[in-house]
Amino acid sequence: MKPIQTKWTNVVLTADNCENLLATTTDRGIASCWRLTFKERLQVLFTGKVWLHVVTKQHPPVFLTTSTPFYVGEEKAHEQI
Questions:
Q1: How does residue 72 score in pLDDT terms, banded at 50, 70 and 90?
Q2: Which one of 41, 45, 51, 69 has the minimum C-beta count within 10 Å?
């Protein structure tokens, strides 16, 4: 999986020994969008599983979704960032 830029991307998060993470920050949190390779799409199709690995000792509140966490409709989406 690779993080991808969206029309809402407004920050690039960086850390040592990690790829840059394109993300969107709002008053409700931080969201990033990821593109799966063809092989990963097949794995999800057949297993129905996606793993989340947070590199920290404490686990912050997170959620995974297949749709944008922003309002549908371009005007409302831009109001959130």
A1: low
A2: 51
Residue at 77 is within a domain: no
Tokens matching residue 19 = 């790829």
Amino acid in the structure at residue 36: L
The beta strands (E) that lie in 1-81 are given as 2-4, 11-13, 21-26, 29-31, 33-35
Q: pTM value?
A: 0.75
DSSP string, 65-81: -SS-SSPSSHHHHHHT-
CA distances in angstroms from 9 to 43, 50, 58, listed in the order given = 27, 23, 26
How distant, in Å, are the alpha carbons of 3, 34, 50 from that of 66? 14, 10, 11
